Every structure is written in C-alpha cells, then in structure tokens.
Amino acid sequence: VQLVESGGGLVQPGGSLRLSCAASGFTFSSYTMSWYRQAPGKERELVAVINSAGGSTDYANSVKGRFTISRDNAKNTVYLQMSSLKPEDTAVYYCKGRGPISGREYWGKGTLVTVSS
C-alpha cells in the first residue's frame, strides 16, 4: 500500500498550488479520501474529505471557498486545489484513505507547503 503526495512547495500569499496524492495497493475507488495538515507546533487537522464516488465533499471552515478536493478514480489519485493561500496555510499536507467497512486507514508521508513572501 502506498499513498504518495506531491505538488508542495513555496508560494507567495495569494497564490495557488495543486497537491496530488497517488494511491496504490488497495481498492482506491472504495475508499473515502481526506487531506490533513500539520503546522509546526500544532496538531494535525482535517482539511477536506471526499467520498468514494466523489459526489460528496466537506471542508474545514478555515479553507472553505479557497480549497477544492477532487478525485480521479481511473487514475487512483486525489487532489487538493488550493487558492488564495495565506501564511497560516503553511504546513505539511497528508492524504489519508479510509476503508468502507473495516475503517482501515492508510496515510501518506506528506508534502510541505510554505506560504511566504
């Protein structure tokens, strides 16, 4: 099982980034997928979640209207489009998959997003 995040980097305030998470080793299309983030000195927090079919999404209040989660089940990939980025969005971003029945969870190793001028 692997979840590999990519797309992080340094961006100026107000800028945009798109994160990707490529999955392998499990039935991706059956799993609810989420993005979490952890800023230095803070606890990991849920950013966005999308159901297995991609028809239902939810977001943390802090990112609503700025971030969009999506998935491509044909490519076994989940995305996080981030816009109007703020310095407080600086964090390591992780993707997580959660199984439909057992609730088994898989985590990626994260990708660093730094928002700074």
- Give the SSE order as H and E letters: EEEEEEEEEEE
Mean pLDDT: 97
> How far is the N terminus from the C terminus?
37 Å
Low-confidence stretches: none
Summed up, the helix count is 0
Helix content: under 10%
Biggest sheet overview: 7 strands, mixed
* Computed CA radius of gyration, to the nearest angstrom: 13 Å
Instruction: Based on Cα principal axes, name the global outline.
Output: globular
- The overall strand count is 11
Assign the structural class, choosing from mainly alpha, mainly beta, alpha/beta, alpha+beta, or little secondary structure. mainly beta
- Amount of beta strand: over 45%
Structure in words:
With about 120 residues, the chain is mainly beta. The chain is built from no helices and 11 strands. The protein has strands at about 1-5, 10, 15-25, 30-40, 45-50, 55-60, 65-70, 75-80, 90-100, 105, 110-115. Strands 2, 4, 5, 6, 9, 10 and 11 form a 7-stranded mixed β-sheet that branches. It is globular. The model has no long low-confidence stretch (mean pLDDT about 95).
